[in-house]
Amino acid sequence: MDKTAAVSLHDITKRFGSTVANDHVSMEIRKGEILSLLGENGSGKTTLMNMLSGIYFPDEGEIRIGGEPVTIRSPHDAFACGIGMIHQHFKLVDVFTAVENVVLGLDGPLKLDLKKAAAQIEEICARYGFKVDPWQKVYDMSVSQKQTLEIIKVLYRGARILILDEPTAVLTPQETDRLFAIIRAMRDDGKSIVIITHKLNEVLAVSDRVAILRRGAYLGCIETKDATEQILTEMMVGQKVELNIRRTEPRDLKKRLSVRGLTVVGPEGLDALEDVSFDAYGGEILGIAGISGSGQKQLLESIAGLQKVEPGSSIVYTAPEDEQERQLIGRTPLEIRELGVLLSFVPEDRLGMGLVGSMGMTGNMLLKTYGVGHQLFVKEEGAKKLAEEIMEQLAVVTPGINTPVRRLSGGNVQKVLVGREIAAKPAVLMTAYAVRGLDINTSYTIYNLLCEQKEKGTAVIYVGEDLDVLLALCDRILVLCGGRCNGILDARTATKEEIGLRMTKLQETDHE
Amino acid sequence: MSAFFGLIQSAIVYGTIIMFGALGETLTEKGGHLNLGVPGLVVMGGFAGFAAGFVYEKSTDSPSMFLLLLFSFLAALVFSALGGLIYCFLTVTLKANQNVTGLALTSFGVGVGLFGGAYLSKLYGVAGSAKAAVTGTLYTANLNSVLGWGIPGDLLLSYGFLTYLAVVLAVVMHLFLNKTRYGLNLKAIGENPATADAAGINVDKYKYLSTCIGAAICGLSGLCYVFQYGSGNWSTNNNMQALGWLAVALVIFSTWKPLNVIWGSYLFALLYWLYNYIGTIFEIKLTQIWTDILQMIPYVVTIIVLVVASVREKRESQPPSSLGLSYFREER
Amino acid sequence: MNKKTVKEPFVRIVKRPYADLKVTVIANAAAVVLALLLSLLLLMAVSGLGPDKVLGAFFSASVSTGNRLLAFLQDAALLLLIAIGLAPAFKMHFWNIGAQGQILMGGLMTAICMYYIKDAVPAAVLIPVMLISALLISGVWCLIPAFFKVRFGANETLFTLMLNYVAIQIVMCFTDTWKGTKSAFGVIDRFTGSANGYLGRLFGIDIGWTLLISMLLTVLMFIYLSRTKHGYEIAVVGESLNTARYAGINDRKVILRTAFISGAICGLAGFLYVSNVSHTISAATGGNFGFTAIIVAWLGAFNPAVMTVISLLLTFVSKGAGDVRNLAGLDSSICDVVVCIFLFFILGCTFFTRYQLVFRHKADKEGGSELKAKEAGV
Asked: Which one of A25, A170, A217, C39 has the fewest CB atoms closer than 10 angstroms to its CB?
């Protein structure tokens, strides 16, 4: 391996408002290597790379290519420097064909020669083993095809440095393996590749070196051959992962939710959920693990009455007050509420679904209760009191209960949302990625709140991505794999490896 | 039969006016900007072209034909492009709301045009409406009067050069959008500006160019109205404005395809003029109410096309995805 | 691959974390002052009058006599009423730009009742019939695009726009029939011989009802949007459809209902035009107000109080320009031009309240720390 630097960053700082996304980061990317950029969610990995690709401009610092300082003001400048980035959310025009997307924005003669470009694309495909039809429309493509197209696009532009942002988040294990083979082929071809990720197994599997970011700061770089999961985890989180969650033994279990044969067709016509069955009990926390996009969203939204489900699905709620069973399928969220179902839901998209960003805490407290009663006006008194209580109890930092919640920091937004949902005294509490993007302290506040709810006899459903947390917080863990229930494990005895395996590979034997 | 030919001729003359407006707006909308200022731009272009011709005619006894043509044509292009520039500065650079800015531009353009026309008449002491007669003859000059090919000539060659220019422009725009690099880039911006930006396209530059050039083309629509349709008479009625809105409707009707604009504009104009000829063609007597109803058809048809396109959900017939939204790269 | 060395951008745009009241006030005041200067210069240039005359006419046009004040209030009230009608739809992110058509349909319905019913029933019956039919037809006129939006996702901006022209043609169908051989359809009682259905004077003012209803509606809309359950639902639907569904709000119902209300209030304006203000109907009824009101509602951020200020300002400017043009014998379209100058400036200044500019070199020291300080000060 050539040890000269292809790109080097010097003292790069980027701020968004009061948050420092990158704090004086200095690092280098060498020629012909695969570098993993490792860090937790929100550690500034993507922001850092976006400054190389011209999406953001650094507030401070210098970027050098081959030793010479450059200024990258736009993606165009980035291409000129030989840098290409494959974003997590693909930057493709849906109504264009593959070849049109590839030539988009390139300089050249006025007349487009798509045939020639298509031939070149096929050449690239043959060289690295891609399979893409240049004349296919993007809206007809699968996620993995779109990703391949993004890589082709960057290679077609002659990029020598490729940055891939969480490339495996949306891929099946087979597709991931294929991607890694492609990445290795590109490295052997002399390209530098940066993979932004927070998955340790992938780091160890594919990269030559690992650079670690923690909360915006660069912690250093180590050779993968010297690294172990333990070392990487320690660097990533700063301390040994000893999650100190106060988990009590579940007692007085009562069935609250019984899901049978739940099937949901996703936006692309594929099954987002297929025949999922499980029970959730009051007095325990049921964790739900899976690669993102394995059907977690559809599962929770089906229970909340926000998803169209296929015939044959059944979701039965057992009320704590009279132990009567109620079918939730086919009802709207309002009908479910009017049925007396005590269901609370902390959705993944906090400001886009759980809260109204332009309203203050008071207004948001009213979201599910504004309609109570037959009077014409909204009654604000109760909501105001509730907002004040939550602000005090959860230590929400806000100038006032009428300040639009959009202005609050992520952690405070989540406290408002969770606070409201818990205040409704739910029998079933569902949370989706409840601690995503939150700092350690706020995360623990949330964990404790969930444990408290469990002790009060609530059935808590916790969709999470951090396996350590799932293992430490939950009582049972349901693993989703490609929209199917791939086993329900006891969180006290299960191992990370076991869950990781089930997340990526269907276990035919114990499938219900 | 002659009434039928008359209808076709009227439709082609009138359709040309709509065609320029619709082509200009198509270019603008492909870049993701819904410019509702088209009627204003049409009036501005018409006024500027007229003013240039009129003032030059008044200033000399023997105006040069070439200069008359050049002045009036350039004036229309430049003046309406300036209108487009106001819109662009507000919506692209200052990220103001497009609908609101467009409507203000319509109000502004119509006001400027009408005021300017009246001001000119007053300045030169013309009673009633002013006329740039010589310039008018330039825009109505046609090959048929030279060649005299009879009915085929009447139907195909009896129009001023703007009619043919409009068709050529539509074809050129079709080729530009579908066969060239810059057209592809522009369409990408209208669909997904973040993607275009990431692909290294200068989004703002394209938006400025497509909007200002589109506005200039809309200006030709007014030029055509004043000189080819009106033979150089400055008119103060609301027709030009109404035609501007028809042009906006036609863009939807054509599902954002310049080649559809060609036949669509003739069809719209045909519907508009039908009342004038339908009585003679079918030998029936029409009351005024039928005129009003027939003139409603283009709008109703456009609504139907709009609804059908959304019901069918065919990706290629939809408006550009980011139409009406402003773009800010660091939006998070 | 060439290595380009380019300079750091001279100025960068940064989104403000939130609107700053002080900045908003300063920016808007600056915009109004600049627009005023430019307008006065333009008026002086085209009228050939001296600054004293232009200024005098401009500022006294709306207030110098009782009649002028009434004319000023009448225009401001109608403009405001239409904007009030549009506000709930816009707040819900439903782009109703069909106000003009809704005004016309409401006005037409009013005229139809008066034209055909004449003296057959007493005013106490006729006026409610006129009012209700006007509200219904205009409400439905806005409900149609709303239906196609919620059902098929049809673009309501273009749909409502097209309906304006359909409405114009429908109005012409009636007026052309009614006028017969006369050149135009004029004041209704001259055609029917009956003034039944005209709203009489109120507080001794001809347009008393128009003023009263506009003020009342402004207050009601303020309460409706800020205090009622419907207002709450509109705010949630406008913010995010997903949040609305999550909250159990029937978003389709809210969109349809709000569209109906929006259209109906525009219809009320049409009713007032015909029954109280102009006593006739034509394709030109409502003039440009249907479009100007859109801008008023937008600039007023759907807040009835701010919208009132903007309606008064724009009407004041328009009347002022009108007086200057009378003095100099100019075409009336100069008023639109002057009003648009104000619109452009106020539209442009919203940028400075939403974004801020960070200049080169200053970026590290001031831009960042300033933002930081502001955020911390929250």
From this structure: A217
pLDDT value of residue B206: 92
C127 or B237: which carries more pLDDT confidence?
C127
Rounded CA separation C247/C231 (Å): 15
Residue C214 distance to chain B (closest CA, Å): 23
Residues A438-489: tens digit of each pLDDT? 776 778 888 888 998 888 889 999 998 777 788 888 999 998 887 888 889 8
For chain C, the C-alpha Rg in angstroms (whole number) is: 24
pLDDT at A511 > cutoff 50: no
Annotate B215-243 with DSSP letters as a single string.
Answer: HHHHHHHHHIIIIIITTTB---SSHHHHH
Beta-carbon separation of C1 and A160 below 8 A: yes
The total of other beta-carbon atoms located within 10 Å of residue A440's CB is 12
Contacts of A407 in chain C (CB under 8 A): 17-18, 378
Per-residue pLDDT, C370? 40
Residue A221 pLDDT greater than 70, yes or no: yes
Of residues A76, A110, A153, nearest to B181 (C-beta): A110
Q: What is the mean pLDDT of residues C27-54?
A: 85
Show which of residues 401-460 on chain A sit within 8 Å of chain C, judged by CB atoms: 403-404, 406-407
Identify the chains in contact with C, defined as 3+ C-beta pairs within 8 A.
A, B
Name the neighbours of A, counting chains with at least 3 Cβ pairs within 8 A. B, C
Q: Is A399 on the interface with C (CB under 8 A)?
A: yes
Instruction: With CB atoms and an 8 Å threshold, state whether B198 touches A53.
Output: yes
Q: What is the pLDDT of residue C19?
A: 65
B132 SS3 class: coil
pLDDT for residue C364: 43
The answer to whether the CB atoms of A74 and B197 lie below 8 A apart is yes
Kind and range of the H or E run holding B69: helix B65-88
Mean pLDDT over A154-158 rounds to: 86
Structure tokens at A216: 């915006």
Nearest to A357 by CA among A401, A312, A413: A413
Q: How many angstroms separate the CA atoms of B31 and B206, rounded?
A: 7
Residue C2 at interface with chain A, using a CB cutoff of 8 Å: yes
pLDDT surpassing 90 at residue B218? yes
Alpha carbon distance B243, B14 (integer Å): 9
- Buried residues in C196-228 as b, exposed as e (16+ CB within 10 A): bbbbeeeeeeebbbbbebbeebbeebbebbeeb
Q: How confident is the model at residue A5 (pLDDT cuts 50, 70, 90)?
A: confident
Residue type at A488 in one-letter notation: I
pLDDT, mean of residues C288-304: 86
CB-nearest partner of B200 from A79, A95, A96 = A79
Taking CB atoms and an 8 Å cut-off, how many pairs form between chains A and C? Answer: 116
Query: Could you give all domains of chain A from N- to C-terminal order, each with its CATH number?
Result: 5-237 (3.40.50.300), 254-342+426-512 (3.40.50.300), 355-424 (no CATH)
User: What pLDDT, on the 0 to 100 scale, is given for residue A237?
Assistant: 62
Model pTM score: 0.84
Query: When comparing pLDDT for C336 and B153, which is higher?
Result: C336
Interior angle at CA C304, CA C298 and CA C307, nearest 5: 50
Q: Residue A406 carries which DSSP code?
A: G
Tally Cβ neighbours within 10 Å of residue A204: 16
Query: Chain A within 8 Å of C370 (Cβ-Cβ)?
Result: no
Identity of the residue in B179, B180, B184 whose CB atom sits nearest the CB atom of A104: B184
ipTM: 0.86
Per-residue pLDDT at C1 = 34
CA proximity to A41, closest of A475, A429, A447, A410? A410
Q: Are strands C11-15 and C355-359 parallel, antiparallel or unpaired?
A: antiparallel
Domain annotation for chain B: domains and CATH numbers: 2-321 (1.10.3470)
C364 touches chain A (CB under 8 A): yes
